[in-house]
Amino acid sequence: MILPLFVLATGAMYMGYLGFESFVGHDAEHFWGQAILVLPSHPALEAAHHVPLWVKYLPLAVGGAGIALAYVLYMGMPSLPGVIAGRVQGLYQFLLNKWYFDELYDLIFVRPAFMLGRGFWKGGDGALIDGVGPDGISAAVKYLAKRAGAIQSGYLYHYALAMLTGLVVLVTWYLFGHGG
Fold this sequence. Notes:
Helix content is 77%, strand content 0%. It is mainly α. It has a domain at 59-96.
């Protein structure tokens, strides 16, 4: 699970290196300007150098103690973690489920995005694009074919009447309309 993070981090570092010149330009030493200026009236960075030594080593000590405790519990007394988990079941479930971040993320982001995507799919793609495009055209052709099929009776005199009517309309349009 950590391999994708390494791939992403490596890509980010190289992209930052490649894009540095176009972002910063040739004047790199003046790019930051006064961004990291510490005024004498605000000695925050100077005070960070005078933090007591125990504060600096506390994270290392706590990390080492955690590693040692995990080794004792899981290597030395492998039955003890099960007993502890049974006594503090609520805390164990909370930590086992990673503070329920996955469920919260699913509720806040994944489900709304899924519903939005489904709405675009059904309303946009299904109803609008397919309804007007391929499905709409095929439905219109089917409707017109059905209507045209109702006109076709199979009798020759019906077809002759239709041709004669068309000829009269065409001549009328030519004489009185736009034809001449």
